[in-house]
Amino acid sequence: MSVLATDESGQPLKGATGSSLASLERQNLVEKRVGRETVWVITETGRTVCEQIQTRRAKHEQSASA
Fold this sequence. Notes:
Blueprint lengths: L2 E4 L14 H6 L2 E6 L2 E6 L7 H16 L1
């Protein structure tokens, strides 16, 4: 399982790579499942980046297969 911690703009959080579960929870992150990956997102304004991540991944996969 890979873990990506990102803010609402989709930018990776500094220092979040390899963070423990407790550490991520202390940062007010919420776990979301995106495909086979676990994604942690900040939900301060009630928004998540799951859709943005899925869109970005789909574009990447399309360009890789073209």
